[in-house]
Amino acid sequence: MKVNNFTDDISSFSYRYGLIFRTSIAGKPVVVSADPEFNNFIFQQEGKLVELWYMDTFSNVFVLEGESRMNAVGAVHKYIRSTLLGLFGTESLKEKLLPQLEQVINKSLSAWSTQASVEVKHVASAMVLNFSAKQIFSYDAENSPENLSEAYSKIIDSLIAFPLNIPGTVYHQCMKDVLKERRTSPESHRGDFLDQILKDTEKEKFLTEDFILQLIFGVLFGTFESMSAIMALSFTKLSEHPSVLEGMIAEHEAILKNRENHPNSPLTWDEYKSMTFTLQVINETLRLGNVAPGILRRALKDIPVKGFTVPAGWTIMLVTSAQQLSPNTFHNPLEFNPWRWKELDSRVISKNFMPFGGGNRQCVGAEYSKVFLATFFHVLVTKYRWTLVKGAKVSRNPILGFGKGVHVKFSEK
């Protein structure tokens, strides 16, 4: 896989200037770090030496009178994290979401198999977005007058930062209509994420209409873009490495065999946890295709680092994607090799493999993403055959790109 532009630039700078160097982004001084030791240190300094930071654009979302900015951002993040964990966390996955995921994936693959071929990232984006949106605000893709996934695609085509204002877009109007309906029609309440945050507007003053629109956009963007990109990349790598696909098929056929007289039973949580090799494949794909190019923090105080000082107020970009391609940790780092995960020490993994961030800001959807991907592979390899019709040149600028797309033909076994 060739990953150009952003990651190549970081590697080039790191080669010349070291794993930590100064540069400028959008006219702002930025310290860029691909150093595992420093990055882990920064992740542990949340609220002490650094704060969560999304550059000036996103920071303007937080209008919280009477509170310090650091405490305000921390309070907002704590609220969002705890609320989303209730929706997408481990307990919800075990008790509620896993069978729903399997059902949606079955339906999606069945529909894809009726077509001559599909562009994987496009159809996977719609599948992931529609399912996530159903959990968040009870979106019904089949009966909604608006196609939310198409609206997202149009926004993301030109998106380089978290949008503050997207009036006039289909997404913006759709969500304003949903909010209006929920507020004016008590019978329209569904017991979902949106109902919860509307209920909390009485006690959480930051939950304005604009904030709710941006929050839902951000949550859906996190699933829409990341999982669809990893699915597209996985088909590219599996087509190049048939032995990996054979290993996955054997693992999942063994799961069916162990069900004795009930091979068509729904996937269980214990079965998901038993997918050792599949999870290694997912880790390896995440390692090579880490969707987030960099994680941003802002220095609250001067921070000494290896003989230099990061001045207070400067932005720090932690490039965990570069860490994951370091030959110091991963032998032949550009090689797709899921078996490498059997040999890696857990402490080495925790410090060098961070596809979902690190510290107390780790992405709340980490387990949700892995369960979604593992369930998708389970249905795929046990019920379908597939052929790569046309591959893609993979690039990063700054997020993963797939040129004219990864086109796959599916057929039922």
What features would you describe in this structure?
This protein has 413 residues and is an alpha+beta fold. The chain has a domain at 1-64 and 291-354: Uridine Diphospho-n-acetylenolpyruvylglucosamine Reductase, domain 2 (2-Layer Sandwich). The chain has helices spanning 6-17, 36-43, 55-59, 69-88, 90-112, 120-137, 148-157, 170-184, 193-200, 209-240, 242-257, 269-273, 276-288, 320-323, 346-352, 366-383; strands at residues 20-25, 28-33, 50-52, 118-119, 295-299, 303-305, 308-310, 315-318, 384-390, 395-396, 400-401, 407-412. The strands form 4 sheets. A 5-stranded mixed beta sheet has the order 1-2-8-5-3, sandwiched between helices. It has a 3-stranded antiparallel beta sheet with strand order 4-12-9. The longest helix is centred in the middle third of the chain and has 32 residues, at 209-240. It starts with 5 loop residues before the first helix and ends with a strand. Heme binds at residue 363. Keywords: Heme, Iron, Membrane, Metal-binding, Monooxygenase, Oxidoreductase, Transmembrane, Transmembrane helix. It comes from Trema orientale. It holds the Pfam family p450.
